[in-house]
Amino acid sequence: MNLTLTTIDNLPLINPGDNLGEIIADGMQKQGISPQDGDVLVLAQKIVSKAEGRLVNMTNVTPTDEAKKYAEITGKDPRFVELVLRESQSVVRTAFNTLIVEHKLGFISANAGIDHSNVHGDWGKDSDWVLLLPENPDRSAEQIREYLQEKFHCPLGVLIIDSHGRAWRNGTVGVTIGLAGMPGMVDLRGTSDIFGFHLKITQVAAADELAAGASLVMGQASEKKPVVFARGFPYALREGNLQELIRPKEQDLFR
Amino acid sequence: MNLTLTTIDNLPLINPGDNLGEIIADGMQKQGISPQDGDVLVLAQKIVSKAEGRLVNMTNVTPTDEAKKYAEITGKDPRFVELVLRESQSVVRTAFNTLIVEHKLGFISANAGIDHSNVHGDWGKDSDWVLLLPENPDRSAEQIREYLQEKFHCPLGVLIIDSHGRAWRNGTVGVTIGLAGMPGMVDLRGTSDIFGFHLKITQVAAADELAAGASLVMGQASEKKPVVFARGFPYALREGNLQELIRPKEQDLFR
After folding, report:
1. pLDDT, average across residues B244-252
2. Calpha distance B209→A23 (Å, rounded)
3. A180 and A232 share a domain?
4. Of B93, B192, B216, which has the smallest distance from its Cβ to A253's Cβ?
5. Distance between CA B16 and CA A159 in Å, rounded?
6. What pTM was estimated for this model as a whole?
7. What is this model's ipTM?
8. Residue B252 lies inside a defined structural domain of this protein
9. CB proximity B120 to A under 8 Å
10. For labelling alongside A177, which of A121, A216, A241, B73 has CA 20 to 30 A away?
């Protein structure tokens, strides 16, 4: 078994309105990559958000009283907090410099995934610009998948990832925020182990495992490569969505 | 950038007392793998535990009153609960079928990582055998690393992984339980992004990202391959340990 994660190099900076599928296909072709049935393209959230124009200038944001309250607790810019709250279903934990929320999309993350770094460029040179997550990352993944499948005439998966902090452990890891054409979870219940025992660990967050591995090669700093081509994903492609990976609140002992 | 994760195939079943370094080196050589400076060997916890004889027959375990109490809450075998408690610093959450603890090693996991599947073999055919985690996985990793480095004459990393459930998200992912000769966390604070901004996400759980990717190719069921050879880990090797990845309790909002 062999899994190869390859960055697509020499991609242009992404601008609002860009056709990401086309840009990725171009990059793959320049690099001599011919996708096969079962390959997966992994995309950093940031380029999807940029292509979709999810930039907001905080100069135009007026914080509510609730935002001001959380800004005081966290020490964050009230306008930034306002944007976080607008993107969220609920506030999960707060502390100085920490604002952990349940995003409208269902997952728990710091600052609703709103990002300040790598944002400006053609859209302004000051630090008031921030970048929201894609409005519907599963849909974004599906659109890119449709483009790539039509281009390359084979079934592909598309995975959109972000870096999240975690309970209990230090540091961030890449996790899924949207996907198309591939499983989020793989259910091995009923499968036997090599001695014929029923397995105890039976639901594997396969998309998140791929997200973490791909995040490793993307890098987080100036070497960042926002698209990774994955060959050897070991599970069959199928329809899938983010929701498979979200633990329902009533089954979650840690909110 | 390219990360390749390759299973070492045709490894024998591991028995207590086996020299894992030697077995892995043999497997690599049979597969024509010549390691280079910077390569990492990723090992499933289970084979390390087996080689170290961490098998326990529950027939010999007498549960305390505390174990009986948690057994009642969780519906688990009181002898199994007793072993979990002996391996743990504290109980974090309980529910029916759920016993989440802080392991003596510092991480949070279900059942202190004690495993029932894939355990028997030469040691008994009934289901009373369970497998504890290695006593000191960093030390286990270091011993295997020393063997491999002497054999292959180049610096290598060794990572021991297990599959853990998570707060907030469904399914298990591979995570680090021990390591040697490689970073657990990579600190990018002070690094600039591609526009010269200071990064917000700056501490990357690099070992856990590799653990998740390697777990994906190991598989969880009958196709399980407990050793993965990783080429292309993007950070420089150095001394490292599990503790880098453990969030101290006083900094953890989710216990």
Report:
1. 92
2. 27
3. yes
4. B93
5. 41
6. 0.94
7. 0.93
8. no
9. yes
10. A121
